[in-house]
Amino acid sequence: MPKFKKKFEMYRHLQMNIPNIYAEARKAADEIGIPAELRGKFGLTGAISGCPSPLTKKVREALDKGSTEVIPLAKLVDEIRSIVKDVYGDEYDAAPINTCEAGLWVTFDTLFTPPMQGRGDNYLTRYIIPYEKHLHHHGGYGRPFPPKFKDILADRGCTAGELGFYGKRQNNLSEYIVPLVGADYSVHGIKYHPVILLTKVDPEASAKKIKVVAERHCTMLSGITSLGYDTPGYGYGVKDPDGTPVLQKRLAEIAHEYDVPYVIDNAWGVPFVGHDIRKSGADVVIYSMDKASESTTAGLIIGKEDVMVQIRRALGYHGDRYGTTASYGKAAYVTNDPGKEALLGVIEALKELRDNPEALTKPVDDLYEVVVEEFEQIHPKIKKGLIITKSYNSRAVEVNYENTWTKDELGLPIFSIEDMYAGSNIFQSGVSQMGVIPTVAYDANIFISPGLGTTDEDGQLIKDNARFAVRALVKLMEIVAKYSGYLD
């Protein structure tokens, strides 16, 4: 294969050779010995919305039992609140919602947007967000600032247009996007766009930069937001002695200095065994409970009581007019209320996280062991540039390959998030050719988690199945590296 000196030429060559890569991938799947009955029914993660993992036996049993009982929904919401308070303390509260994205929407609308009532024109507010991965989620609710970022959300999803990502923008709200110190925003991909490479982020320097932005925009500052992840590929590899990402702690400190809330989007995260809101200092953390927590489809908002009162009011949970601590009524965001089965699943998942955390952490430990063993077999040149870490927060193993790129040589091909949505991310489309359902794998970062045909009904890892999926990924990375000219 030819050696390339220009990135776009390498990616153009890959695009031209996609049929050949696919053919080699299918042949490799046979050589690996992936059973025919397994193909198309297992994958590298059970924690994505497009193809979630099956419910565990405990959750199914809870649904079966609860579905035959008469239970006021306010009682179920209060049970969720009680479990959260058991773990975090009585100064925290919770509100279930139908999805994590809905949780972001109601939280930002409640805490970040200016009031709509009263005489005269609305004033403008602005929140701060680091220039980080998944920006189209927690960064989709305000007009991007500076203007050079005006189109940053345009291709970051499959529902573009006025009622797509642009339709999420809230009343008189903008967002300041702050590039992180040490990050690399170079352009990559067959669908050629800037990618977000974060393993070298300097949290202290980044926090100082963000504080300068907060000072500059203090008259309109209404909040700060970020992801809640804790891995190097997401920019949170530097942690304090308690294991809390330093950047998250600094963002909380800046927010509180300006008396505005710090809201964390922890969609691919779990409460209790993952991000600890008490240690980070966040005001609100929002979860997608069906991703890593093994719940039914639902979101969960956890936060400090003073801000949760406003969020619960927006959802109609705050109490009846005649005076109760909770209700299940009508409010601005009643369209996002979860139903009975969703609440039952959240309760069972939270109980398991509280009472039996090892049941959720052990599959991560077992998967990490499999991933490390299988990547020991990858070509030494690729292996030298890998960072492999595990996260209990996301219940996943992260494989990052940013460091295959050097000043002297183009590295292992990096696909942009635009490639993911365009279908031109070969690390995703290629494993599909091998009968493996892909995972989130863009910006030189691959998240692998248990659940999709790789766990039993109790949620424990079936190592042989997981090994087939990881082995397929390893082989595909070598095939792509050969066609890109990275490997001879």
TrEMBL record:
- Its domain of life? Bacteria
Q: Which SUPFAM superfamilies match?
A: PLP-dependent transferases
Gene3D superfamilies per the record? Type I PLP-dependent aspartate aminotransferase-like (Major domain)
Protein name (database record): Uncharacterized protein
Mind telling me which InterPro entries this protein's record contains? PyrdxlP-dep_Trfase, PyrdxlP-dep_Trfase_major
